[in-house]
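Tokenised fold entry reproduced for everyone:
>
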Amino acid sequence: MRWVVFLRAVNVGSANRCRPAEIARQLSKFGMINVGAVGTFVVREDVTESTLRAAIAKKLSFECEIMIVHAGDIIRLAKQNPFSEQPSGSDITRFVNVLHKPPRSLPALPLSLPSDDDWLLRIIAIQDRFVLGIYRREMKATGYLGKIERLLGVPATTRNWNTIQKIRSVLENSSSIS
């Protein structure tokens, strides 16, 4: 099985420091590729999720959430055009939150924070373990990203939509993706 790995809260400020390129090199037996976004990897070799999780955890000097997703799920997500009806521009960031597991209950969508009229973050869709949304490039907006975890009751890590597209490209250029 091929995988995509997302580490949560690494290399943020001076906390939870690691070297993703070094981790990928050390775990090259799994065909691990560092995608460039902090703590994002593509795993091309056939390995079980539990073996992969244990190997990554051993390489970290701290505890963190390790989200592991089937490669096919990322390809399917990236082939969609979920942001076609959303505002765009240099002041808008498209993002995906990868959840540790699917949430038990879902809020009514779209969900705009702090309000529909004066939104800084908008969740447009939740698909299994993926939360799709946009936020304005303002300092206050990043605080609302943390509220997604509390709202859904599930640990999450955020990646830019461009990173998801880059992962798709790496996966599609790798052979035999399950």
User: Anything to note?
Assistant: Residues 16 and 102 are 25 Å apart (CA to CA). The longest strand covers residues 92-99.
